[in-house]
Records
---
Amino acid sequence: MISFARGAPAPECLDGALIADCARVAVESDPAVLGYGAGGGYGPLRDWLGARHGVEASRIVVTSGGLQGIAFWFEELLAQRPGRVLVEAPTYDRPLKQLARLGAEVVALAMDVEGLELDALERELAAGGVSFLYTIPTFQNPSGRTLSVERRRRLVELAGTYGLPVLEDDPYGLVRYEGEPPPSLHELEGGELVTYASSFSKTIAPGIRVGWLVLPTPLAGRIEERAVSTYISPPFLTQATARELIRRGAFEPNLERIRGLLRTRRDTMIATLARELNGRATWSTPEGGYFLWIDLPVDAGELLARAEAAGVAFVKGADFFPGTGGERSARLAFSYASPAEIEEGVSLLASLL
């Protein structure tokens, strides 16, 4: 099965020898990483992340993967500030599942090629009763779109006007293949209303399960309390492994190697789509990340059944909406399959249309 469904790095992106050596050194230099520790995470890593984001280390909470931090934040915000939750349409399906379990009323806001449509956001805010906005402004999952700088500035202005808490989920921002990175919402707003979430899953390895939140000071302690109540302390061994990889200067070279591997896959998918589906479908052209969004001339669910029978998998667009939407769209991940598999898989999909 050729998988365009897996939002995971290709196996060759993962440097097992490097990570294993970093783990060995982390334990040898500080055996305490094998025990319990502070609920907010491994101190040296929190210090580094705080310096990177320009905040005190106490405002960093390191979690067991980025999605765990998102779950803590959702729970805390809905408890403190009940109301409607605003998301992009489409948006990452796992947070939608979390919000459904929490019983949240979710309102999906339209997007275009520049990202979230802010007139739609402002209308919802003016109506009142909003708890928070969850957004992936850079190389969005599932669309691959990036919110323009002009819209980022306006979003921050709207957040300030309406006192809107925002969760900026940014696991893909460093996986950029071209273009200049825009400022984060967190940078533009200053971190009073915007919480920034990210992880090392795309830049080191998903198996180390290290994510983090950059939180407003009043929230940091409450989120850390939730972490302690959930798992006592996070796994310090993997957090110390990530810190050792950074300490020895391997983070940027490893990231550049990953970018090169994934850039080739992105380019292969776009070139093959242009060759095989020009005039029959339209798709996004992301400057980074793992995914692109394709609008199809047929129902994606019906196509998926035939595609899987032929040996190709993808995720149908409807999975990324809290209600209706995306029925003739799909998310294609180019991050996992090899370039040869991407060519074969896209050609197979084209033959089914």
---
Amino acid sequence: MKKLFALLLFCHVAFGVKHSLKYFLTATSGVPNFPEFAAAVVLDEAQVGYCDSIRTAEPKQDWVRKFIKDNPQHLEWHINQCSGNQQFFRANIDGLMERLNQTGGAHILQRMNGCEWDDETGDIRGFNQYGYDGEDFIALDLQTLTWIAPKPQAFITKLRWDTEKARLQFNKNFYIHECPKSLKMYVHYRKSFLQRTDLPSVSLLQKTASSPVTCHATGFYPDRADLSWTKDGEELHEDVDKGEILPNHDGSFQMSVDLNISSIAPEDWKRYRCVFQLSGVKDDIRTKLDKAAIRTNRGFPAGAVIGGVVVLLLLALCIAGLFIWRKKYNGTQQHKNSCPAFTFKADIYKNISS
């Protein structure tokens, strides 16, 4: 079984990973207790940067803070881009409301743009699309260099934007060359920052004496890892509940696996091990099932596990509220710049409402 897992883990690495860099920008009108403008940068489905009409641009992970410290001009550029896009989106949502004869109510204009890169095949895919009030409004087709308008209300915008050949070429260059260049730079910088020489932390946790024993591993990178329970060296599949790999605030990852101990005799505990395996690392981390090593209730590291889940839930709620429109597009696979960092430069200052 162990040999089979090692083979599968190797195959997973061999297939490569699809990385993504996405920019989400949102303008609102008539939405109480929410910024009139907000923007987020998401790398491999984890938020790494944010700004809005109230708060200035700020990095969201430790490796990004280090990147900004090493390259302070990137933060300055981001602040300028955030300010410029705020004016652009504010003008456009007002113009759209006027054109559609909307005098009140809650309205939301959004843009999702960015690129994907497969680090195994080298394939690149760019995207740039707008949404209005929860529905697709207009999107760029990089193959034909034309705009697609799924709604009749966007057709006048399509006709105008299709004539702007210089802008279309700018978009093509940005999404096919500049954006992927940025994406690769961030991925490599993050990897060099998070690739650790020390081993991740592995702990045994238990809420009550009758609860399952949780084996929790945290602080590892990349996310190609496995955590399992074994008995006499053989991996267990029954009485085991394996959790998903989740991101930590610093860009590293964590995961856990529960073992139901209700049917395990005390004298048999010594036969069980929690085994952590990280792709590319020769030695596994093996932790013996031992009552003396279990942290129970008061020793349960809520900050590591529960806190991490709460952060993820809050982020999910933020994304759901901020980005009501987030259409799944063909060919997208979610991951479980020569232009400076966190720029939103494509299509800036182009009127969507005329």
---
Amino acid sequence: MRIALLSYSTKPRGGVVHTLALAEALAATGADVTVWSLGRGGDTAFYRPVDPRVRLSVIPFPAIEGEGVGPRILRSIAVLRDAFDPEPYDIVHAQDCISANAAGRCVRTVHHLDTFTTPELVACHERAIVQPYAHVCVSAAVATELSEGWGIKATVIPNGVDSSRFAAAAASTPTAVAARSVWRERLGRYVVTVGGIEPRKGSLDLLEAYSLLSATDPDVRLVIAGGETLFDYRDYRARWGARAVELGVTPIVLGPVADEVLPSLVAAADVFAFPSAKEGFGLAPMEALAAGVPLVMSDLPVLREVFRDAATFANGPQELAKAIGQALADPAPDQRARGRVLAAGHNWQTAAQAHLDLYDSLR
């Protein structure tokens, strides 16, 4: 079977992580898989090495100084559409709004549903939902949103996770211990979150919670990793920075972290915080569970569905601060053990086979 998977970026965002892992698992079954994407910022390859059995087609997408989000979205669609030829493929599967608009007739994975105000994004989002002929969701909660909002029935295929990679980072081997020690020596005790500073990630709530936590546990640091995004969150980040000054706290903002050291950063943390306002699955916190790190996250239906009794749920700064403080004081080994089991149960081989079954049903 010849499969094209389309993504909007080569950067380490959740949808791109999903696309590459799925492509590799599909290729391992013998499928002929090509990943198409835009190479933003001069990129000619993805953020990590990819299994050579997967073909890659990275389309140059140079930055334009001063380009707004709307025009950048329209240009992204046009550049990918002009480069992509669907003819050789049995299945064309778009993984996001931009690639679904560019692909033509396609299957679409809806990772989560957004609410946009930029007119170009509003139109892009709507077309990417109504035009594909088949839909996949990574959780039943998102599938329900799709059904109730658009009358579309989606196939639910949960994400996999590379649990062995993150479990290995938490192991007692000399290599793993040394890698964690690098972060502990640099950061001390810390709460980590992955996803950057942006509205959907609940960054302001986490900042407020950290301020409350610092009053009783001043030695704990807040560490923020990631943040590569297509969108312009400069105003939000400016508000976040100004609020940090007002609160007198200084979180450590690492920005994007190299793929090879991300597992040790997560495994060395005392708590993983994930106060998102909108999610489709939660790949980064599932990786934290694989590493045995206590998890505190937003009380959203989708996260309740996916994480069940392996996480502590909290909403708002007060609840977040209390839950993180409790996790620091009592890491709850039974809950962490449940988390490891949960993460190990999500694998890309199962996800790939479910996709192949869907593809076969569509041919």
